[in-house]
Structures are given as structure tokens and as C-alpha cells.
TrEMBL record:
Pfam families: ABC_tran (PF00005). GO terms for cellular component: plasma membrane. Residues 9-240 form the ABC transporter domain. SUPFAM superfamilies: P-loop containing nucleoside triphosphate hydrolases. This is ATP-binding cassette domain-containing protein. The lineage of its organism: Bacteria, Pseudomonadati, Pseudomonadota, Alphaproteobacteria, Maricaulales. Keywords: ATP-binding, Nucleotide-binding.
């Protein structure tokens, strides 16, 4: 992170709906996440949190407005640029970016290094992709030796969430997007997991945008934001 680093996320005049006649889901005048900043975004179920992350990751395209991730205009970029940006510079922990179920845990974690030479190069100091994958798994509380060769589908949901987090963190991407990554963990493991995720982000100077409807998690973060206070669209969210 340098003084000249662009914001991790910059959104201006965003309006998004899933289909032409579908209701407006997001109407956000402005949202910025600074380089290296760790932000908690809360909002009730159905309020548009996953949609917002999908737009930042370039999986969804904004109807109107500008969505930049690490200085790349994800709405205007061609699909190849979006995919390359995501592979090289973003770590995502999303339900829809599930682990590959038949691939062993270790291979799942190292996947970003196969798609991006930049991510692979960033593991060099740690001894390469395998050493870094093992370190991250251990750090996140999973015994790498026992699980390295296990197919991901053989793991519990909570264990899979930790594998997904290790995969997001490998190769030090500058922005981590996390969508309810602690939903399957009990309170103690949840707090421990968040602390470790934050420590890893701090060490690699990654920005983190973490969404959840569990307001109790907000104290861990630099800043907490309520989606409903920045979103003018009138999608009815359910109470948290
Ligand atoms: N693929 C889709 N097609 C059409 N509408 C969708 C789609 N995905 C989400 N929506 C709608 O967009 C709105 C926002 O959904 P979204 O999943 O972003 O909310 P959320 O805040 O992440 O909810 P949760 O906390 O339950 O995951 C909801 O009204 C939902 O029905």
C-alpha cells in the first residue's frame, strides 16, 4: 500500500436491477473503501449485500454508474480484463464461488496461483504456493497434514469456509471480498476466524469488505457501514 494506491473500492452513482422490469436492488450515490481498509457491511437478508459484492467482483454488471475495484472500472472492462483482475488481485469468499468438490483441499487453496502468475510470485517469500497454502490452512485452524489430500466435499461446511478463506488469501491479493464466511461457525470459532482473517489482511496490507447480517461482528473492523443507510433503493430486506 502506498499513498498513491487507488481506493480498494470506489462506487459512484450505481443503480442496479437484475432485469429490465425487476425492482431496483441498489441505488448508491457513493461508497469508498480505502486501500488496506477493513470494512464491515451489514444489512438484513435480501437487502443487496451479495449483489453489491458481485458487482465489485465483476460477476454482475452495473446498469448505471461506476464500480471500480483497485482502480479497474469493472463495469466498463471487457470480460477478459475483469476475469484477469479478479484472478490476480481479488480474493473472494462467496457462496457462489464454491470450492471444487472433487479437488483435494490443497489444490483448491493453490488454484489462484495456477490462474495468476502474480499470485504465484507473491508466495515466493513463503516458499511457494504449497508452503503458503499449508501455512494459511494451519493459521485458519485446519490441520493441513490431515486434510491436504482430502476432497473438499468430505469437509464440514465450517471447514470448507476456512479452505475458501485460505484460497482467497493466497498470493496476497489487495482486496478480499467476504460474503457471510462465518455462517457455519459457532461464536467462539467465528470470533477467532475473524481475528485471523483480519491479521492476515493486515500483514498483507489487503483491504477487506466483509458482509454479514450479524451486527455483533462489527467491533472487529476499522469501520462498520449499514447498507440501508447508503442504498436508496427500496428493496424490502427482512429483519436481521
Ligand atoms: N440472481 C438473481 N436474480 C434476480 N433477483 C435476485 C438475484 N439474486 C438476488 N436477487 C434479489 O436481489 C435482492 C438482494 O439480494 P441479495 O442476495 O443481494 O441480498 P443479501 O443482502 O445478500 O441477502 P442475504 O443476507 O440473505 O444473503 C433480493 O430481493 C433478491 O431477491
Amino acid at each position: 500500500m502506498t499513498d498513491t494506491a487507488p481506493p480498494a473500492v470506489q462506487i459512484e452513482a450505481l443503480r442496479f436491477r437484475y432485469a429490465v422490469r425487476a425492482p431496483l436492488v441498489l441505488d448508491i450515490e457513493r461508497l469508498e473503501v480505502g486501500a488496506g481498509e477493513r470494512v464491515f457491511l451489514r444489512g438484513p437478508s435480501g437487502s443487496g449485500k451479495s449483489t453489491l459484492l458481485g458487482l465489485i467482483a465483476g460477476i454482475l454488471e452495473p446498469g448505471e454508474g461506476r464500480v471500480e475495484a483497485l482502480g479497474t472500472d469493472m463495469g466498463a472492462a471487457d470480460p477478459a480484463t475483469r476475469d484477469a483482475t479478479r484472478a490476480a488481485r481479488l480474493g473472494v469468499i462467496f457462496q457462489m464461488f464454491n470450492l471444487l468438490p472433487y479437488l483435494p483441499v490443497g489444490e483448491n487453496v493453490m488454484l489462484p496461483c495456477r490462474f495468476s502468475a502474480e499470485r504465484a510470485a507473491a508466495t515466493k517469500a513463503a516458499g511457494g504456493p504449497e508452503a503458503e497454502a499449508r501455512r494459511l490452512l494451519e493459521r485458519l485452524g485446519l490441520d493441513a497434514r490431515s486434510y491436504w489430500n482430502a476432497p473438499s466435499r468430505a469437509l464440514s461446511v465450517g471447514q470448507q469456509q476456512r479452505v475458501a478463506a485460505a484460497r482467497a488469501l493466497i498470493g496476497k491479493p489487495a482486496l478480499i471480498l467476504a460474503d457471510e464466511p462465518t455462517s457455519a461457525l459457532d461464536t467462539h470459532r467465528r470470533d477467532r476466524f475473524i481475528e485471523l482473517l483480519l491479521e492476515e489482511c493486515r500483514e498483507s496490507r489487503a483491504a477487506l469488505l466483509f458482509v454479514s447480517h450479524d451486527a455483533g461482528l462489527s467491533a472487529h473492523f476499522d469501520r462498520a457501514l449499514d447498507l440501508e443507510t447508503i442504498n436508496r433503493a427500496s428493496v424490502e430486506g427482512e429483519p436481521a
